[in-house]
């Protein structure tokens, strides 16, 4: 017989060391799993009723809206968002209906590295138009993204946010568009809060991007800055002769709105913090579909605990620190993320998922692609990596960077979401950390665990934080404190996760 949805999920969680030939390195996108009651009965008949009870309680609490995207740190509701002609078709409009609409730009805050040709800036973003959509239609579209609630039942402020985000999703990307960017050295910098960053003294100029936009409206390319003279006679400082991050404003020419960003000219050496956002900087709960949707589409973005205090302290006390925020959410929903970050955390460059990364394998590989790009762009810098255990790509990509780029990873800090959030019932794999010096990484529970660490000199481990890393698949009851009132069955603890999953899979297939 065909396996149940639960069997497929369990099979996908098997360690690659035990079934290397059968299990792909990255989990594939699956349909939402449903708990097969016949499989549960077979488990009970075989004397494994506590296993069935445990799994049943997990999946019934999560509902049927969970996919392998949750385990990968990519919420399913951010997958396969409509673009281009799909938007036109769903709204019943044509491209000619948009002729009078203004052209808009998403200009993602870029970073720049120093080369023998000068400063090399990575300019990336998207060109699009926003259709005129009635509120009634917006409400219908917004309800597609909400579970168990109608937009009309939300508080007014949440209704407004849901409509705004929905209107940002249902835009029409513009292909084959020429993009011209204007660099202006007029950034207002607060040295006390911006890690010693300074406004660039020169560098104002216009640059035409070397390629027109893609079919998805994307533009992404490095461009070389000329060292033009500023209004006060200043110039851009060479990246190998300064410790300061220099800031330039960047505008997309001709864009009616949202076309402005700040470019960060990052010196050859120093420390860059690469930070994920969901469930490390903000409360998202991607592992809880209903809450994740409300937290992303309707509720105001809320910082996780006192994490802003930790980042602010690093920004104030570590000179010339560069922050880079990396999220794998698609471009259409990036604006809310950027607005939240720049109101709550230190200024920094940004990365998101381009629209041409839309199929299964590309979506699950985008974080590694973006991490490789920044590591290769700054081969002499040290990196501090921030994330959480609910992202399987983080759990594999971060430790992989230690061997891929020797000497560049300074610290890895991972929030153990299951130790402080009882709704996170998904296991995570720590085998990538085997062989890495404990002094380089820490699985922490609360932001205060990060305080008083000398990260500049490589102190990345707080010995008072209980970790219990087993270098294998671990449940929410594995690292730190138990995550929920759902107790793991006794056989799970006694024979280990891998063997337990094999037993359950075999029972469900028979």
TrEMBL record:
GO terms for molecular function: phosphatidate phosphatase activity. Residues 1-22 form the signal peptide. Residues 271-416 form the Phosphatidate phosphatase APP1 catalytic domain. The keyword RNA-binding does not apply. The keyword Signal applies. InterPro entries: APP1_cat, Mg2+_PAP. Keywords: Signal. This is Phosphatidate phosphatase APP1 catalytic domain-containing protein. GO terms for cellular component: actin cortical patch.
């Amino acid at each position: 017989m065909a396996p149940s949805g639960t069997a497929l999920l369990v099979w996908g969680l098997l360690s690659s060391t035990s079934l290397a030939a059968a299990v792909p390195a990255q989990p594939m996108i699956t349909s939402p799993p449903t708990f097969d009651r016949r499989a549960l009965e077979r488990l009970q008949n075989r004397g494994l009723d506590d296993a069935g009870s445990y799994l049943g309680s997990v999946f019934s609490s999560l509902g049927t809206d969970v996919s392998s995207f949750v385990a990968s740190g990519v919420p399913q509701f951010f997958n396969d968002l409509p673009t281009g002609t799909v938007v036109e078709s769903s709204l019943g409009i044509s491209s000619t209906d948009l002729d009078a609409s203004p052209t808009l730009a998403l200009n993602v805050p870029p970073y720049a590295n120093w080369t023998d040709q000068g400063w090399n800036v990575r300019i990336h973003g998207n060109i699009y138009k926003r259709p005129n959509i009635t509120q009634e239609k917006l409400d219908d579209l917004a309800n597609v993204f909400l579970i168990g609630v109608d937009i009309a039942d939300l508080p007014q402020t949440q209704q407004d946010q849901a409509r705004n985000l929905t209107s940002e999703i249902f835009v029409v990307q513009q292909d084959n568009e020429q993009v011209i960017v204007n660099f202006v050295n007029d950034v207002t910098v607060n040295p006390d809060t911006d890690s010693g960053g300074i406004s660039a003294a020169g560098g104002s100029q216009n640059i035409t991007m070397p390629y027109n936009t893609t079919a998805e409206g994307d533009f992404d390319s490095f461009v070389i800055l000329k060292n033009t003279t500023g209004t006060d006679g200043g110039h851009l400082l060479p990246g190998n002769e300064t410790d300061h991050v220099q800031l330039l404003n960047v505008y997309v020419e001709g864009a009616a709105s949202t076309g402005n960003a700040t470019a960060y000219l990052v010196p050859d050496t120093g420390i860059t913090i690469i930070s994920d956002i969901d469930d490390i900087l903000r409360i998202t709960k991607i592992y809880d579909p209903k809450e994740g949707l409300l937290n992303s589409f309707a509720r105001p973005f809320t910082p996780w605990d006192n994490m802003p205090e930790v980042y602010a302290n690093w920004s104030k006390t570590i000179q010339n620190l560069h922050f880079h925020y990396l999220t794998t959410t698609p471009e259409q929903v990036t604006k809310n993320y950027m607005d939240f970050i720049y109101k709550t955390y230190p200024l920094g460059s940004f990365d998101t998922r381009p629209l041409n990364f839309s199929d299964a394998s590309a979506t699950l590989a985008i974080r590694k692609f973006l991490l490789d790009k920044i590591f290769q762009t700054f081969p002499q810098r040290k990196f501090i990596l921030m994330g959480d255990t609910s992202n399987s790509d983080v759990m594999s990509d971060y430790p992989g960077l230690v061997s891929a780029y020797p000497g560049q990873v300074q610290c890895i800090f991972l929030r153990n979401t299951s130790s402080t959030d009882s709704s996170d019932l998904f296991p995570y794999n720590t085998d990538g950390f085997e062989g890495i010096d404990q002094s380089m990484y820490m699985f922490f529970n609360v932001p205060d665990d990060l305080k008083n660490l000398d990260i500049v000199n490589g102190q990345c481990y707080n010995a008072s934080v209980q970790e219990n890393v087993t270098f294998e698949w671990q449940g929410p009851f594995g690292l730190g404190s138990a995550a929920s009132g759902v107790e793991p069955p006794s056989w799970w603890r006694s024979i280990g996760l891998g063997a337990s999953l094999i037993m359950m899979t075999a029972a469900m297939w028979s």
